[in-house]
Amino acid sequence: MGMHQNYEGEDQRREYSRVEAYVPFEYRIVAPGETGNIKARISGNTAATEFRPIPDLGEHEPIFGEWMKLLNAKLDTILRLLTLQREGYCGLSYKTVNISGGGMSFPLPDLLPLGETLEIKLTLTLQQPVVLCIYGEVVKADRRDKGYFIAVHYVHMEDSIRDEIIRFVFEREREIIREKRR
Predict the structure, then answer these.
(1) Which of 8, 125, 127, 160 has its CA 20 to 30 A from that of 171?
(2) ∠ CA 76-168-15 to the nearest 5 degrees?
(3) Distance, CA of 62 to CA of 141 (rounded, Å)
(4) How buried is residue 47: exposed, middle or buried, by Cβ count under 10 Å (0-12/13-18/19+)?
(5) Distance between CA atoms of 124 and 146, rounded to whole angstroms?
(6) Nearest of 97, 82, 78 to residue 23 by alpha carbon
(7) What pairing do the DSSP bridges indicate for beta strands 41-42 and 93-99?
(8) What is the mean pLDDT of each run of 10 residues along the chain (182 residues)?
(9) Cα separations in angstroms, 12 against 6, 103, 118, 176
(10) Closest Cα partner for 124 from 48, 182, 40, 13?
Protein backbone atom coordinates (compact mmCIF):
# COMPACT_ATOMS: atom_id res chain seq x y z
CA MET A 1 0.00 0.00 0.00
CA GLY A 2 1.57 3.34 -1.06
CA MET A 3 1.85 6.32 1.23
CA HIS A 4 -0.64 8.39 -0.78
CA GLN A 5 -3.03 5.63 -1.80
CA ASN A 6 -6.65 6.33 -0.88
CA TYR A 7 -7.76 3.56 1.44
CA GLU A 8 -11.34 2.66 2.36
CA GLY A 9 -12.71 5.04 4.95
CA GLU A 10 -10.05 7.75 4.54
CA ASP A 11 -12.60 10.49 3.89
CA GLN A 12 -14.89 9.24 6.69
CA ARG A 13 -12.03 9.09 9.19
CA ARG A 14 -11.73 12.87 9.21
CA GLU A 15 -15.38 13.21 10.24
CA TYR A 16 -14.64 11.84 13.72
CA SER A 17 -13.47 13.99 16.62
CA ARG A 18 -9.98 13.14 17.84
CA VAL A 19 -8.78 13.34 21.40
CA GLU A 20 -5.55 12.60 23.24
CA ALA A 21 -5.76 10.20 26.18
CA TYR A 22 -3.40 8.32 28.49
CA VAL A 23 -4.74 4.74 28.57
CA PRO A 24 -3.67 1.16 29.32
CA PHE A 25 -2.44 -0.04 25.91
CA GLU A 26 -0.72 -2.99 24.26
CA TYR A 27 -0.35 -4.11 20.66
CA ARG A 28 0.90 -7.05 18.68
CA ILE A 29 1.30 -7.69 14.96
CA VAL A 30 -1.35 -10.07 13.62
CA ALA A 31 0.16 -13.01 11.73
CA PRO A 32 -1.01 -13.29 8.10
CA GLY A 33 -2.81 -16.60 8.79
CA GLU A 34 -4.89 -15.01 11.58
CA THR A 35 -6.43 -12.16 9.60
CA GLY A 36 -9.47 -14.19 8.47
CA ASN A 37 -10.56 -14.82 12.06
CA ILE A 38 -10.23 -11.40 13.69
CA LYS A 39 -13.06 -9.22 14.95
CA ALA A 40 -13.04 -6.27 17.38
CA ARG A 41 -14.70 -7.04 20.71
CA ILE A 42 -15.43 -5.77 24.18
CA SER A 43 -13.46 -7.94 26.61
CA GLY A 44 -14.30 -9.07 30.12
CA ASN A 45 -17.94 -9.27 29.20
CA THR A 46 -19.42 -12.17 31.15
CA ALA A 47 -22.97 -11.42 29.99
CA ALA A 48 -22.78 -14.39 27.62
CA THR A 49 -22.68 -16.74 30.60
CA GLU A 50 -26.19 -17.98 31.32
CA PHE A 51 -27.31 -17.81 34.94
CA ARG A 52 -30.82 -17.96 36.29
CA PRO A 53 -31.98 -14.53 37.53
CA ILE A 54 -32.26 -13.94 41.26
CA PRO A 55 -35.85 -14.65 42.26
CA ASP A 56 -37.87 -11.71 43.48
CA LEU A 57 -38.29 -12.20 47.22
CA GLY A 58 -41.05 -9.62 47.40
CA GLU A 59 -41.74 -7.42 50.37
CA HIS A 60 -41.26 -10.23 52.91
CA GLU A 61 -37.47 -10.21 52.75
CA PRO A 62 -36.36 -6.78 51.45
CA ILE A 63 -33.01 -6.80 53.29
CA PHE A 64 -32.19 -10.34 52.16
CA GLY A 65 -33.11 -9.38 48.59
CA GLU A 66 -30.77 -6.35 48.68
CA TRP A 67 -27.95 -8.54 50.03
CA MET A 68 -28.50 -11.03 47.21
CA LYS A 69 -28.36 -8.24 44.60
CA LEU A 70 -25.14 -6.91 46.17
CA LEU A 71 -23.55 -10.37 46.19
CA ASN A 72 -24.62 -10.90 42.58
CA ALA A 73 -23.00 -7.61 41.54
CA LYS A 74 -19.77 -8.53 43.37
CA LEU A 75 -19.66 -11.94 41.70
CA ASP A 76 -20.18 -10.30 38.30
CA THR A 77 -17.21 -8.01 39.02
CA ILE A 78 -15.01 -10.93 40.09
CA LEU A 79 -15.93 -12.92 36.96
CA ARG A 80 -15.19 -9.89 34.79
CA LEU A 81 -11.78 -9.33 36.44
CA LEU A 82 -10.87 -13.02 36.08
CA THR A 83 -11.84 -12.91 32.41
CA LEU A 84 -9.72 -9.78 31.85
CA GLN A 85 -6.78 -11.37 33.65
CA ARG A 86 -7.08 -14.52 31.54
CA GLU A 87 -7.17 -12.42 28.35
CA GLY A 88 -4.01 -10.53 29.37
CA TYR A 89 -5.46 -7.11 30.19
CA CYS A 90 -4.31 -6.73 33.80
CA GLY A 91 -0.68 -5.88 33.09
CA LEU A 92 -1.13 -3.31 30.31
CA SER A 93 1.23 -0.34 30.48
CA TYR A 94 -0.05 3.19 29.91
CA LYS A 95 0.54 5.07 26.67
CA THR A 96 -0.60 8.41 25.30
CA VAL A 97 -2.73 7.82 22.20
CA ASN A 98 -4.67 10.03 19.86
CA ILE A 99 -7.99 8.28 19.33
CA SER A 100 -11.12 8.77 17.21
CA GLY A 101 -14.01 6.70 15.89
CA GLY A 102 -12.09 6.00 12.68
CA GLY A 103 -8.62 5.17 13.93
CA MET A 104 -5.86 6.02 16.35
CA SER A 105 -2.22 7.03 16.43
CA PHE A 106 0.54 6.53 18.98
CA PRO A 107 4.33 6.67 19.36
CA LEU A 108 6.37 3.47 19.06
CA PRO A 109 10.12 2.87 19.18
CA ASP A 110 10.05 0.65 16.07
CA LEU A 111 8.90 1.21 12.51
CA LEU A 112 5.88 -0.82 11.42
CA PRO A 113 5.28 -1.45 7.70
CA LEU A 114 2.27 0.12 6.02
CA GLY A 115 -0.57 -2.37 5.60
CA GLU A 116 0.42 -4.38 8.69
CA THR A 117 -2.57 -5.41 10.87
CA LEU A 118 -2.27 -4.80 14.62
CA GLU A 119 -4.27 -6.26 17.48
CA ILE A 120 -4.66 -3.50 20.08
CA LYS A 121 -5.79 -4.08 23.65
CA LEU A 122 -6.79 -0.96 25.55
CA THR A 123 -8.98 0.23 28.37
CA LEU A 124 -11.04 3.39 27.91
CA THR A 125 -11.74 4.71 31.38
CA LEU A 126 -14.08 7.53 32.23
CA GLN A 127 -17.61 7.16 33.60
CA GLN A 128 -17.92 3.51 32.54
CA PRO A 129 -14.62 1.70 31.85
CA VAL A 130 -14.62 -0.32 28.61
CA VAL A 131 -11.96 -2.91 27.81
CA LEU A 132 -11.49 -3.39 24.08
CA CYS A 133 -9.61 -5.64 21.72
CA ILE A 134 -9.57 -3.85 18.37
CA TYR A 135 -7.76 -4.24 15.07
CA GLY A 136 -6.11 -1.58 12.96
CA GLU A 137 -4.26 -1.41 9.68
CA VAL A 138 -1.11 0.72 9.72
CA VAL A 139 -1.75 3.60 7.30
CA LYS A 140 1.04 5.98 8.31
CA ALA A 141 4.43 5.79 10.01
CA ASP A 142 6.26 9.09 10.58
CA ARG A 143 9.82 9.30 11.92
CA ARG A 144 9.99 11.15 15.27
CA ASP A 145 12.74 12.04 17.76
CA LYS A 146 12.92 8.68 19.53
CA GLY A 147 11.11 6.36 17.16
CA TYR A 148 7.98 6.57 15.06
CA PHE A 149 4.44 7.90 15.20
CA ILE A 150 2.13 5.17 13.92
CA ALA A 151 -1.42 5.75 12.64
CA VAL A 152 -3.95 2.94 12.23
CA HIS A 153 -7.36 2.76 10.58
CA TYR A 154 -9.79 0.36 12.30
CA VAL A 155 -10.68 -2.87 10.52
CA HIS A 156 -13.11 -5.71 11.38
CA MET A 157 -15.09 -3.43 13.71
CA GLU A 158 -18.85 -3.32 14.24
CA ASP A 159 -20.68 -0.07 14.89
CA SER A 160 -21.35 -1.01 18.53
CA ILE A 161 -17.58 -1.07 19.24
CA ARG A 162 -17.04 2.16 17.29
CA ASP A 163 -19.87 3.75 19.33
CA GLU A 164 -18.01 2.89 22.55
CA ILE A 165 -14.90 4.67 21.25
CA ILE A 166 -16.94 7.69 20.10
CA ARG A 167 -18.63 7.86 23.53
CA PHE A 168 -15.19 7.83 25.18
CA VAL A 169 -13.95 10.61 22.86
CA PHE A 170 -16.93 12.84 23.72
CA GLU A 171 -16.52 12.20 27.45
CA ARG A 172 -12.79 12.96 27.22
CA GLU A 173 -13.52 16.17 25.25
CA ARG A 174 -15.92 17.32 28.01
CA GLU A 175 -13.28 16.53 30.63
CA ILE A 176 -10.67 18.61 28.75
CA ILE A 177 -13.11 21.55 28.46
CA ARG A 178 -13.84 21.37 32.22
CA GLU A 179 -10.12 21.36 33.00
CA LYS A 180 -9.55 24.45 30.84
CA ARG A 181 -12.31 26.36 32.67
CA ARG A 182 -10.63 25.91 36.05
Answers:
(1) 8
(2) 145
(3) 59
(4) exposed
(5) 26
(6) 97
(7) unpaired
(8) 40 73 90 84 58 61 75 63 53 86 94 95 80 94 92 95 93 90 83
(9) 12, 10, 20, 24
(10) 40
Per-residue DSSP letters for 19-61?
Answer: EEEEEEEEEEEPPGGGGGG---EESS--TTS--PPPPP-GGGS
CA distance 43 to 121: 9
Set out the domains of the chain in order of their start, with CATH numbers. Answer: 10-43+89-181 (2.40.10.220), 45-86 (no CATH)
User: Does residue 175 contact residue 111 with C-beta atoms inside 8 Å?
Assistant: no
Q: Which residues of 130-160 are buried (b: 16+ CB within 10 A; e: fewer)?
A: bbbbbbbbbbebeeeeeebebbbbbbbbeee
